[in-house]
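I'd like us to work through together how a protein chain folds, taking it slowly. To get us started, please write out a protein record for me. Go ahead whenever you are ready, and we will take it from there:
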Amino acid sequence: MKKVIMIILSAFSAGYTVWYMSLGSLTENSGALSKTGLTHPLYFAFWGILVFSAIYVNLLYAYNNLPEKHKFQYFLCAFSAVGMALTLTCDFDYAKRAQYFLHCAGSLSFSALTGLCVFLIFLLNYRRGRLYAAFTYIIGSILIADLILLIIFKETALIEAVPVLFALTILPILNFTKLFKEKVYASR
C-alpha cells in the first residue's frame, strides 16, 4: 500500500507541477513559479507542500533501503523543509525586501539541498552498477545546466521545474522498479 501511495503522490505532484506551470509563461521571468504564486497563493502553497512531500518520502525511502545506513539525509530534509516553508510563507515581492530575501533564501535552500540529496543517493550507489553511475552523471549535469540557465535567464517556470519533474520521475523508478536492481549471475 505504501508503494502505491508513493507512486500516486509522485505522479500527482508531477501532473500538478505541469498544470501549475501553465498558469504563467513557461519561458519568461514573469512565469516563474514564485511569481505565479503571487497571483495564485493557494495553488502555490499546495504545489510546494505536494512537491516537498512527494520528493522527500521517496528520498527517505531510498536512503532507508541502502545497504549502509546514513543520517545526513534527515538533516538535509529538515533544512530543506525550512527552506520550503520560507518559500511558501514569504512573498516574492521586492517591495517587501525582507520577505523577498527570505523567500529567495528559502527557495535556494530547498533547491540546493534537495538536488544534493537526490545526487547523493545515486553517488552512494555509484559502484553498484552502470545505471547508478550513469544517473550520477545525468543528475549532476541537470543540476549544473539548470544553475547555468538560471544565472543566464533568471528564473522561469521551465528552468525551475525540470529538476523537480526529473526527481518526481526518477525516484519512484529507483524505489519501485527492478531497473536499478543488481543482477546476480550464477557462478559456474
